[in-house]
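Researcher: I'm comparing several assemblies side by side, and this is the next one on my list. It has 507 residues spread over two chains. Same procedure as the others: predict the full complex and return the structure.
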Amino acid sequence: MDKETLIAELKAIVKPYAKDEEALANINENTDFINDLKINSANLVDVILDVEEKYNIVIDNESMEKMVNVKSAIEIIEAKVA
Amino acid sequence: MSNRVVITGLGVAAPNGVGIPAFTEALRTGTSGIRHDPQLAELQFSCQIAGKPQVSEELQLQYLDPLELRNFNSNGILYGLIAGIDAWKDAGLQPTVGPDPDWDSGIIFGAGSSGLDKLREAIYKVDALQVRRLGSTVVPQTMASGISAWLGGKLGLGNQVTTNSSACTTGAESVMMAFERIKNGQAKRMIAGSTSDAGPYIWGGFDALKVCTYKHNDTPTQGSRPMSASANGFVPGSGAGALLLESLDSALERGATIYAEILGGHVNSGGQRGDGTMTAPNSVAVQRCITQAMVQAGITGRDIDAINGHLTATSKDSLEIENWSKALGRAGKEFPYINALKGMIGHCLSGSGSIELVAAVLQLKEGFLFPNINCEDLHPEISAIIDEACVPRELINVNLNIIAKASFGFGDVNACVILKKYING
């Protein structure tokens, strides 16, 4: 799966939680979920559950802790899907 | 410091009307909010009728955004938000804007439980070894203080924000707690309210206790019959009411509309001694609660124009009338008017006191007494104490000065609030 597609899919997943619409429109590899998209930190677990459902993967506790931005999310998804 | 305390805003989500205009109309016309409940029938409850506020999806979206409504399954919080936010806006106030909360305003919003349907979902997931799939929504919807926490965030209030719980006394108690806080100068404004979840998981325990009626499954609007000879148990209800309490000084300063003044009240317990048990009231404590409320309000039994009773439509109704009669020192034709809202909405449990207080305040402000529906056959034990005319069966338009409202609850707990019409000065 190429990065562009993954970012587009992630964008759809985080859309309901993102409070900063401009940052969401410009989402890229360097986008941080909390600092840029202004996602409530409690909602990060919901983002992770939605990612698990979309890609039919299980994200372990260590990976969860790292999944705070688009870059780490892509790395984790690619590693699990592969 | 002792401030006078007035009511400047009202909100309600009741089985027979959501929002003050619809609720007021239902009160005047004696409209029942009791309906047949297919879910209770399917689950083989003895009582298959209930009172639930009718809340459309469109209305929900006025109080919760689409993200908040994702995986939202706590109807008690929904009803409380409708009542609480409406009361705040009805008082001419807006949610706080900017980083600082409103330090002078707080919330005491009671509940008997929170998000039982949500808790049920969570329990099933936990038992299926899926605890990690609960997501972020379980805690805020199932913590006992859920309703006050949600309201506090919606409005940005910075004074005390808490939830009280004392069974069916909860709503009257929250008003007394908020009253004290304002009277003592610790807050200028408090939202006082209470809510109750709807559904089989909260009502099931009462069905099992055999305190609900099973005789009206085919005639739901006739099912709740307070003070009637043919009453044979309460109809379970749900919903929320809220009152915005404010110091008189603050209300006058803002030029707010004043619905009524709270002269005082009292909260106590019978200690489950004497006649009192977990489920039955100690009459000595009930009478004491009423008399102490009158003492704090600086009135006597003769000053009371009308009573808004607890009156659930069980065998305890006659005892309640006897307790009022003794506490006020009035009987027969000398007894004040008395009415019971539960005839229209059932017993809304932890939400009942607040919804009924909203009704009592509307009666004072607009000068009417709502009809006691389903009381065509006043119980002979009651007519032996008070005159038939004290129990209006039709709407009465009448100027009232003082209404006493009491609520009693499991645990042998009592609360009584004395409300007075506000006339300038």
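Model: For your comparison table: The longest strand of chain B covers residues 5-14.
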